[in-house]
């Protein structure tokens, strides 16, 4: 008599160990886009007579945009002037700034206002305030676009190139 | 089996002499015939102590038979002890059976016991009672005399039981033991490959699975293991070839399609970016066509689009003019918009997945969807605090 062994089916499940991909840093693209806009604004706008040898970009926070801008403009010159990025505590410190960049959450938090003696070019992001914004960066159709406040620019002596004016979406500030 | 053994017993007794012995053992035999196993047990224990029958091979044959029957009929935990007693009696009978009168029925008893040990082992194994499975198979291997496929099966199951118990060194010893004896089991190559892989012996894992492929080129689990090991080694060049070969035979295997997708993403570099983007996109779309709510395909394709959008933005330096930037924004925004519905397809508000929420956060941020972004930010914060 032969050995009668039950050979049971032993079910082993093997599956593929594929990986999920990882999303890159989500604020980075917006910071790059904002930096490129800021640099282009500086190139395409003529400042009232200034004796300074540098163009100083001021931010209210030392955040990821600050780092990105600092990295991108480090070796850049416009009209033989070097570009620097500086943090300021408030708009009261605006005097040395060629350009001030303000985000929407900062203006809400600190209830910022342009002081009478502040003649810096102010770029606001996410909001427009006619007495403050020379340029407003705002989203439309899911894309970051810009509008120019020609009135305020003229008042403060900024000459915006026709090229830049042609690219602006003025509807953003008319709404 | 029982009928066969009883007929043989009658033959044995008919040719035996010695009235005293026969009288004692006859009573045992009668009890067995009447299926009075308790009384048969009592009688055989007496016969075992009787000087006239204590050294008679027949006593131990009958004892082995009684305990084998008790084992067979019992459902209680005692059955294991019955089987051990039966086995010990078989061994004692073999010692006393000088003229080999009981050779054939003893072999049958022994076969029954070994088969039951093996079968218990497989039942324990399938019920995931690995310690008990190991015990049964170990006893089986000790009494089973031929080194055939059953014997190797038992060692193989001992090895895989140890593997399940995370006793990797013991598992490796037994799996290599059967491998060295040319055990014919394709899963052995898979088990050894994963074992080596988990021990970070990546070359050894690759060698053993390639050896398995030579013996069993069409065996599905070996092919799957090969793909995993190539991926684990980061050997994406070979993996690309093998996974595409696998998919030519199994075109709708979702796991292989996913692996192809990640392989293509791993193989992307500056020169091959566009080519592999399209290949990845193609396989993920194929999966979504087969299984529209597949989490990994929707997630990976969504993140593929998102990462592509980020790359498109990031390859522009500060000298990019606004005309060009506008075009870049057109392209990247379209990709963000393509990613969003894929991620929303797999979003389950009842069961939050942190990686998915982070991908949604990235897209909401870049599409400036503030309300949705705030909601996701809150959920991520809760999950991070362990409240989600």
Task: Give the structure's gist in a few sentences.
Chain A is an alpha/beta fold and 175 residues long. Chain A is built from six helices and nine strands, in the order H-E-E-H-E-E-E-H-E-E-E-H-E-H-H.
Distance between the termini of chain B: 62 Å
What is Rg of chain A? Answer: 26 Å
Approximate shape of chain B? elongated
Largest interface: A-B, 44 and 70 residues
Going across the biggest sheet of chain A, name each strand in turn. Answer: 3-4-2-5-6-7-8
Mean pLDDT of chain B: 89
- What would you call the quaternary organization? heterodimer
Radius of gyration of chain B in whole Å, from Cα? Answer: 34 Å
How much of the sequence of chain B is in beta strands? Answer: under 5%
Q: Roughly how many Å apart are the termini of chain A?
A: 96 Å
Secondary-structure element order of chain B, N to C: HHHHHHHHHHHHHHHHHHH
The profile of the biggest β sheet of chain A is: 7 strands, mixed
Number of helices of chain B: 19
Q: Give me the secondary-structure category of chain B.
A: mainly alpha
Number of β-strand runs of chain A: 9
Give the count of helical stretches of chain A.
6
Mean pLDDT across the residues of chain A is 85
The proportion of strand residues of chain A reads 15-25%
